[in-house]
């Protein structure tokens, strides 16, 4: 069903926002990588238990990103973190690795209706290597929703 729906979405230049337990992402990698439309993986991959960046699921996420049609939303750390706010250090390991791997494929977002933007933004900047990178990620999130992925801020590294 997903491939058929993705084909319909691709015809309209729409994207799929996807989430699952990231520890199992490698079992769906071939399916997700073959989809003809853009894919946004929610919540920093949504790994429900702490995993290393060498974990099969995390490595699958990196390969999906490298495929050119996958973006990752840097949001929802509060759902998976054992260390908690304000920096969510345990989840920050994954976020920092993703930002270092492909800054241009990261999006800022929030799943919290009543979030405090300053707190979330500060955390997003902490995941990046510098303040300017964090700002680009945040701006790209807004640019993504109003344009196609190819027209977002990918060229402004």
Record keyword descriptors for this entry.
157 residues; alpha/beta; TIM Barrel; four-stranded parallel β-sheet; 4 strands; 45% helix; disordered C terminus
Polypeptide structure, described:
This protein is an alpha/beta fold and 157 residues long. It has one domain: TIM Barrel, CATH 3.20.20.140. The chain contains seven helices and four strands. Helix 3 packs parallel to helix 5. The chain starts with a helix and ends in an 11-residue tail after the last helix.
Please outline what is shown here.
By secondary structure, the chain is of the alpha/beta class. The protein has 7 helices and 4 strands. The chain has a single domain (2-155), classed as Metal-dependent hydrolases (TIM Barrel), CATH 3.20.20.
Derived structural class: alpha/beta
Number of strands: 4
Order of helices and strands, N to C?
HEHEHEHHEHH
Indicate the low-confidence ranges by residue numbers. Answer: 113-122, 142-157
Largest sheet: 4 strands, parallel
> What fraction, in percent, of the residue positions are helical?
40-55%
The residue-averaged pLDDT reads: 79
Separation of the first and last Cα atoms: 36 Å
Side by side, the strands of the main sheet go 1-2-3-4
Number of domains: 1
Tally of alpha and pi helices: 7
Binned strand content: 5-15%
CATH homologous superfamily assignment = Metal-dependent hydrolases
